[in-house]
Amino acid sequence: MPEVTPVRRTVRRPQPGPGRPKDLEKKAAILEAAKQLFPQRGYDGVSMEAIAAEAGVSKLTVYNHFSDKENLFAEAVKCRCEELLPPSVFEVRPGEQPIGEQLRGIGHAFHALISSDEAVQLHRTLAARAMTDTGLAKRFYEAGPKRTIDALEGFLKRAHAAGVLDVPDTHRAAIHFFCLLKGEHHTQLIVGCCERLAARECRAHIDSVVDFFLRAYLPR
């Protein structure tokens, strides 16, 4: 009988692709660089090359993860908001924590976000560009303020369903809550005529907003 030559099979090794640890590390480094540079230098003062250098990656890697500077800017805003206002803050926990305490927690996290140096500087940058470019402002709003309002609206809907709040119009109530938290001080902070509130004053301000909100929306 003729000899049968065994067939050799080539084993293909898996190639590294998007989402692998090293890839995710680079993406995180790029976002961290963007979060630092955009507030420091303004949108126009930051290039993709500068972000790549700060992150320790190539410019091509930055473009592979974020197709352009506007996308990277929006992702940096989203990432910063999620750091200070993570989804866990908006979990309704009836029976575990009073609704007032939960609202205070949201209030402190939101106030810390809008009063941060990064947020104030970005707000000023967008205001300066408003006359010539509204597209970037829309990207900022979608990535930051709108996502935050939507998250609070979801929280209020769940609180309403659980019977711990009575909120017929959750979207309007979410906007009211955040506007009350901003108050007069945020406008003064943006235009540069005051410093951030001291911790004691900040607590008093947030307590007064939450008390006011509860008077409107606690079940009768």
From TrEMBL:
Residues 47-66 bind DNA. Keywords: DNA-binding. Residues 24-84 form the HTH tetR-type domain. It holds the Pfam family TetR_C_7. The keyword DNA-binding applies. Residues 1-23 are annotated as: Disordered. Coiled coil: none annotated. It comes from the Bacteria. InterPro entries: Homeodomain-like_sf, HTH-type_TetR-like_transc_reg, HTH_TetR, Tet_transcr_reg_TetR-rel_C_sf, TetR_C_Proteobacteria. This is TetR/AcrR family transcriptional regulator. It comes from Pseudomarimonas salicorniae.
